[in-house]
Amino acid sequence: MPSAARALPRARTRVLPRAGRLPPAFARTASPGRLAFLCRLAPLCLLALLGAAPAASAAAGWSVTPSGGERPSFYAEGPPGTVLQDTVSVTNPGRAPVDVHLSGTGVRIAFAERGVRIPARTRADVPFTVSVPAGAEPGDRSGTIVARDADGRTRSVPLRLRVGGPALAALTVEQVAVHGDRITYELVNRGTTVLVPRLAVRADGVFGRVLDRAPRTLPVRLRPSARLRLTEPWPDRPALDAVDLRLTVTARGAAPDTAGAQVRFVPWGAVAGGAGAVLAGAGAVFVVRRRGSRTADGGPVDGGPVDGDPTGGGLADGEPENGEPVDGLADGEPENGEPVDGLADGGPAGSGRAGGGPADGGPGGSGAEQVPRSGAGLTAGAVK
């Protein structure tokens, strides 16, 4: 097959040569001896005609063959991405035209004309091309060229295609990730042959290995340049850990390839609950400290000190504050001109006298002395 055909020529027809006219076998009058001979020969001729009838009938049908010689089938060879060309011949030796539809199976075949009309005693040569896929792996492929007439009768010719180029096995694993309880990854066939991959899985956590699966054959077949996304179950993955995940793939004739991912497993539900408890405790501590700071500043708090008295009881009525008399009373001066605590003007002071000395220059002293009383809250002055 010549290669790299860009445009196919149209089908060509060629009229088959007619058979020469046979001379008359018996032009003269038969003699009696010849007549007897013919009578003996007649049964033999009849048997010969009966046996040759199926062969003549078969020869009258149309046929499909490769063009240009006695080839039993078509053969094409080329590297991936090439286009190869050849020609198929459809021969009609009969006395009526035949309409034929051409098609191909197994390989990529394109005909110059799919529908061809072949007149009587004519041969049609129809060009066609065979395309080798760009990603085809080296090796042999088989196909068939089929011709079908209007009555449904078919004729076929086998076609063999050999794809050239070196056989290369190359496999990679990519896009490794963990989603829930599954590991996702992609396998890519970067060679020229069909591959059946094998997969091994390993994962190491903070405290040791958490996953270890021996190599096993996957139920897939990767054609050249094919990319396939797969998943690996992981139902018993850790709840809290930092994991180094590694996937290793290989195939027959291919070097191993490894890819991985760093995965962190965190139980976010438990973390959210613990964070809420911590925030609630921090809020309680803040409130307690806030109330304590307000008490230290002298703010009114139930049962606390009043008006700056650190003892919490306050000042009694009449008790001197910072050494000064309370309620505007002068030393020994009665309130509103009335005696204090039932003392009459000029009466004896009784037990109300301070220090036992007389007032106003008396013998007991030289003036009144302030004496705080525990119950009344006023100062008492000695009288004469």
Structure description:
With 384 residues, this protein is α+β, with helices and mostly antiparallel strands. It is built from two helices and 17 strands. The strands form four sheets. Strands 1, 2, 4, 6 and 8 form a five-stranded antiparallel beta sheet that branches. Strands 3-10-9-5-7 form a five-stranded mixed beta sheet, with no helix packed on it. A hairpin with a 6-residue loop joins strand 16 (241-250) and strand 17 (257-265). The longest helix has 29 residues, at 268-296. It is elongated. It starts with 11 loop residues before the first strand and ends in an 88-residue tail after the last helix. 17% of the residues are buried. The model is unreliable at 19-30, 51-60 and 303-384 (pLDDT under 50).
A few lines on this structure:
This protein has about 375 residues and is α+β, with helices and mostly antiparallel strands. Helices cover about 15% and strands about 35% of the residues. A hairpin with a 4-residue loop joins strand 9 (about 140-150) and strand 10.
Contiguous runs where pLDDT drops below 50 for at least 5 residues: 19-30, 51-60, 303-384
Counting DSSP E segments of at least 2 residues, the number of strands comes to 17
Shape: elongated
Strand proportion: 25-35%
User: Which percent bin holds the helix content?
Assistant: 10-25%
Q: Structural class, from secondary structure content?
A: alpha+beta
- State mean pLDDT (0 to 100 scale): 73
DSSP summary: helix tally? 2
* Largest sheet features: 5 strands, antiparallel
Q: How are helices and strands ordered from N to C?
A: EHEEEEEEEEEEEEEEEEH
- Rounded to the nearest angstrom, the distance between the terminal CA atoms is 156 Å
Question: What gyration radius follows from the Cα positions, in whole Å?
Answer: 62 Å
